[in-house]
Specification:
Length: 320
């Protein structure tokens, strides 16, 4: 029963992490990153800001919700340690806490270096790309901890398994897609444009590549190209698993990938409105988690199962 409660907590923590990530995007979209000034961990030099503006409320709320990630991360590590000391579930929980701390450090650096609000420097573009890559590692470790808490063990594919190499490439492509997406989203926020339909869209894309434009404007074309390639590769990777019919996560990953590609196209057509950016980011993280679960559940041989009577751990004998 203790493992069951921990599993629910771990999955709940993952969902909370994604909610905080989405709220962080809203901070950028509303230009609220400087809502607390260049002060950290205080806000405008105060523990609790007095008579705050809307931007201050948004930024301060994001800091509070982000701070709770650290509290929940500590709870998860302590709980996992109580359950299995130094096992893989504890290590995944510890990795989650580590990436939470790194996430907080990057956020603090953005504020202290004033790489927020309307800053359009190269340094900010680099940091936000690294910020999102750390976010992916954070959600990956939280997903792994929750998966292991459900009574599973890590799959052990053969050393020459081609899926493992292909999956590693898919992970790298999704990380690259997310990093370029973070930079593109920053450009869309700082240099908004009007929606364009028809032939005018192609003309606008071509004009955006001019060297006279800011580098964030010129980089807008990079993310769609990377995303299309990565999306098609992920589809190619999971379609054989879908055809086998034994992996529901592969089917979910395929549907999410196709939906993401469609939303990406809509984002371009509508000039990336804030609400659509949030939905696009939500589905991106959902795809990331689902693809990880696809790989984790692909090899069910040797999976650990706990029955409802809390009997000792037993090895299941089901095949992939």
């Amino acid at each position: 029963m203790a493992h069951n409660r921990f599993e629910k907590f771990a999955w709940g923590f993952l969902f909370y992490l994604i909610a905080v990530i989405l709220f962080g995007a809203w901070v950028r979209i509303t230009h609220s990153g400087a809502g607390c000034g260049s002060h950290w961990p205080t806000c405008q030099g105060e523990i609790v800001p007095i008579a705050p503006s809307i931007n201050t409320i948004i930024e301060f709320t994001h800091r509070l919700t982000s701070g709770l990630c650290g509290v929940f991360g500590l709870m998860m590590v302590f709980w996992a340690w109580r359950l299995e000391r130094s096992g893989p579930m504890f290590l995944a929980s510890a990795a989650t806490l580590f990436f939470v701390l790194v996430e907080g450090a990057i956020g603090a650096g953005l504020v202290l270096k004033e790489l927020v609000a309307d800053d359009d420097s190269v340094a900010r573009a680099i940091v936000v790309a690294l910020h999102l890559s750390n976010t992916l590692l954070l959600t990956a470790s939280a997903t792994l901890a929750a998966w292991l808490a459900g009574g599973h063990i890590l799959p052990r594919p053969p050393s020459n398994d081609p899926f493992t190499r292909r999956f590693a490439l898919a992970v790298a492509l999704l990380i690259l897609t997310s990093m370029t997406g973070a930079v593109t989203a920053l450009g869309d926020t700082l240099f908004p444009i009007e929606p364009t339909w028809g032939p005018g869209l192609i003309d606008k894309v071509g004009a955006g590549l001019s060297t006279a434009n800011h580098f964030l404007v010129r980089l807008r074309a990079v993310h769609p190209a990377v995303a299309i390639f990565a999306g098609l590769y992920v589809c190619w990777l999971v379609v054989p698993l879908v055809r086998e019919g034994g992996n529901r996560w592969a089917k979910a990953a395929l549907h999410l990938t196709l939906t993401e590609l469609a939303l990406g196209a809509l984002n371009v057509l509508l000039a990336a409105p804030g609400w659509l950016q949030i939905i696009h980011l939500l589905l991106a993280h959902s795809l990331w988690v689902t693809l990880l679960l696809t790989a984790l559940s692909r090899d069910r041989e040797g999976a650990v199962a706990r029955d409802h009577d809390n009997l000792p751990l037993t090895r299941a004998t089901q095949t992939p």
